Amino acid sequence: MCLAVPGKVVEIIGDDPLLRSAKVSFAGVIKLVSLTCTPDARLGDFVLVHVGVAISVIDAQEAEETFRYLRAMGELDGLDAAVAAASPP
Predict the structure, then answer these.
(1) Which residue has the higher pLDDT, 83 or 73?
(2) Tens-digit pLDDT profile for residues 42-69
(3) Tell me, what's the pLDDT at 17?
(4) Contact indicator for 41, 54 with CB cutoff of 8 Å
(5) Could you tell me what percent of the chain has a pLDDT over 70?
(6) Any idea what DSSP says for residue 57?
(7) What's the CA dihedral at 71, 73, 74, 76 to 10 degrees?
(8) With contact defined as beta carbons under 8 Å apart, do 9 and 24 qualify?
């Protein structure tokens, strides 16, 4: 099964709609993501990301609900551990 995971846009890179990308935070883990399919994404927005591409802009409530489902399914176990390991004591 393929999943799209919500993340928060923390930095936008570039102005060209076809080449624009963003640094997106997934529970504290930052990844570089293409914004080609979401030209309306702005700083602070939540986006659904699939294989490195933001495929839609969603609201914060939908992002939190998706995280709850993923956590309940055990799909965030590795991500939660990575964030905890990277956090300062």
Answers:
(1) 73
(2) 999 999 999 999 999 999 999 889 888 8
(3) 82
(4) yes
(5) 81
(6) E
(7) -40
(8) yes
Would you kindly state where each structural domain of the chain is located, as residue ranges? 5-77
Residue positions counted in the chain: 89
**Would you give the distance in Å from CA 74 to the centre of its chain?**
18
**Residue-wise burial string across 36-59, b where 16 or more C-beta atoms lie within 10 A, e elsewhere:** eebeebeeebbbbbeeebbbbbbe
Short-list 2, 25, 23, CA closest to 13: 23
For 5-77, give the CATH class: mainly beta
Contacts of 76 (CB under 8 A, 6+ apart): 27, 67, 70
Tokens at 53, concatenated: 């591409």
